[in-house]
């Protein structure tokens, strides 16, 4: 797929996405010698990915603010911005999709829901997608089957391959 709904996607020689251009902006990706993604520039932020995604450093290109995220076994995220450290626990379903997030005290901090083909749904399983505010509140982009959600482009980034979430009737 090189275009879809007004978006264009360019790929490298290993068939990994290099750029995604669309009405919601542009995302660009850089890969290392073993074809693992190590950098993403999207929505005014640059994300550096280290150790297969176990560590991320996110730089806000406008403010210079640096956020560090450490993922522990796919069930916990430690987020550090300046001197503020937050711990978030990820609760997954049988497919590995993040369903709920709780803080260190066990308080619910967010919910995610996905249709059978990976499209985001409201956490209550109602039709429609979460609001921008709900999406920004998530402490992780790990969503459907534990893969990164590229919400601006309505794609699931599966480690180099991208999947367009669809409904069974589309």
From TrEMBL:
Annotated Gene3D superfamilies: RHS repeat-associated core (2.180.10.10)
Protein name: Rhs family protein
Lineage: Bacteria, Pseudomonadati, Pseudomonadota, Gammaproteobacteria, Cellvibrionales
